[in-house]
Design a protein that fits this description.
2 copies of one chain form a homodimer.
Chain A (H helix, E strand, L loop, with lengths): L1 E5 L5 E6 L13 E6 L4 H11 L3 E5 L8 H13 L7 E6 L1 H13 L5 E6 L2 H7 L4 E6 L2 E8 L4 E5 L8 H17 L4 H6 L10 H18 L14 H10 L6 H18 L6 H11 L9 H9 L10 E5 L5 E5 L2 H18 L1
Parallel strand pairs in A: 2-9, 3-4, 3-5, 5-6, 6-9
Antiparallel strand pairs in A: 1-2, 7-8, 10-11
Helix pairs in contact in A: 3-4, 4-5, 4-7, 5-7, 5-9, 8-9, 8-11, 9-10, 9-12
Chain lengths: 348, 348
Amino acid sequence: MRRIEVGGPQPYAVEVGPGLLARARVAERQVALIHPADLPPAFVATVQAALSPTLTVEVPARDDCKTLGVFSKVLSRLAQANLPRDAAVVGLGGGAVTDLAGFVAASYLRGVAFYTLPTTLLGMVDAAVGGKTGVNLPEGKNLVGAFWPPKAVWCDTDTLTTLPPAVFAEGAAEAYKHGLIADPTLLPRVLSPDFRPGGPGLEDTLADAIVVKAVVVTRDLTEKGERAFLNFGHTLAHALEAVTDHAVTHGEAVGYGMHYAALLSRDMGGADLTAHTRAFLRWQKPRPLPALTFEDVWPFMARDKKADSEGVRFVLLHDLARPYLARVPEEVLRGAFEAWQADVTRLC
Amino acid sequence: MRRIEVGGPQPYAVEVGPGLLARARVAERQVALIHPADLPPAFVATVQAALSPTLTVEVPARDDCKTLGVFSKVLSRLAQANLPRDAAVVGLGGGAVTDLAGFVAASYLRGVAFYTLPTTLLGMVDAAVGGKTGVNLPEGKNLVGAFWPPKAVWCDTDTLTTLPPAVFAEGAAEAYKHGLIADPTLLPRVLSPDFRPGGPGLEDTLADAIVVKAVVVTRDLTEKGERAFLNFGHTLAHALEAVTDHAVTHGEAVGYGMHYAALLSRDMGGADLTAHTRAFLRWQKPRPLPALTFEDVWPFMARDKKADSEGVRFVLLHDLARPYLARVPEEVLRGAFEAWQADVTRLC
């Protein structure tokens, strides 16, 4: 079992290891447990046995739960149960449900305690640490939410054995990204056959990938500075998700987006790291994209949440583990897009 | 003009005086202005001229805007306008719209800058200072929200001249409450004929009432301690609002509730301050209540947001400006309720 401390104004610990669902414990006497409809019933039963929740709220699976409509219904369930302000909200499931549960915890009675039990690799590497919570709007993803750190995170590695390989690979994209921006030792380990559910490399590689995020968010909880580096590859990724109406998964989009960001980094004068992002795409085997032009994706990049009044910022790399923020001229964006498209057509 | 500093992790200033709508200035280049449909159009035009907002969003009047449905629609308007994260949300109007606007500001892109221009006495004395934002659920008032302090508050006293006397009196109830819990010099000043829109006592009495709240919330932003004292009179008040389905206004309910809390304070061994709360009721002239029994209101007191797992806490007074928190035995609650009912039947 690995234990990772996340600092900041409200420090908390992330535990990574087998059997943690059964070992979850909270200080609060009343608990609302929130989980998606498609979660294995045994996971829910195990956590219910551990926490004896006052109420258990089932929400729609995947991003279907990340709406203000579901947010509203869950809050009403908590209010109907008279859940007091010294209660806790516990999110059990993938990143979508922990994002929803966190925003519920942040908002119910203006904030109650929050705990997460992520059950997907993506949820463990990305969503569970750092305190970003929220839901989508019809106008875009994650446009509403709060920074609301959990009081504890339990990453039960046993839950990953039920994941389809493609869903596991989604989380691997974020772990690989952590390798590129901060810990290059992760790069070969994520691509190793030992990094699989039940594999000998799983716990330590996963824990080291979480450490990268824990260090960054400890220094920058509300994304005023370096936390933005975690968005490496995400500007094109979000555009690909939007333009395909989420036919492309987040993990596939990040795999594609990291390669675009590596091309931009090179074209802006940095080291050529594209061999790394090509290697990841070969390992990930994302589904092919529809035919896209720069004009298709540009409006979505320009309205990315990372945009401010001065334009779209990209996270680029001078070299491995040397990220920086830059505004990239449109002609560079356009040129790299053509190179990216040629590469992904060949690779995927 | 009076300027009041509110401290804490994000300090800000409250300005009180005439002509402030026209003098509002914000650092952010893009602004969403939110106002209720029943606001005098001249107020909206004045603020639009001062701030040149990117978009102006009209919402339903009074508590009809404090729903998750309106919250959702306003957020979509901001997203459709591509409002960036370095933009500001400005709430103009009564406490309901500033509560809504604050929760929108807290949640849009996980938080943008927030400013308020309250135009009711209640909004100036109570809602505008302290960072509590939020909306209602069908299950109860203010059950959803965030602590999200404004960057500045402008209380333009000119706006109060359009208020019906009964609406002005609503805010006077909160100002009187600040006198009881912290600054007894306010008590005669609130009841003075000089304390009226355009009156010579308005600006200073209003500013001193705001100072009470500013001092308390500076020391206790998230209501872990003494901030709860601001709820003096509010446990019965919220029950009266709920049981009458809000036929009783908040200000009337607080007038009634302060008298109940004064009776409880006396019965629990404190000084007899009921002459003060009777004097306020005589001044306020709230509309009579329907016939109510203790059994009618008790369930609503018991599920008040101020309740935690251990029961309903009441704010009581040892004496003027000496508030404390107590759990009151049910027989004391019941006895005081009968005395309260006899008094209000005679007075109102």
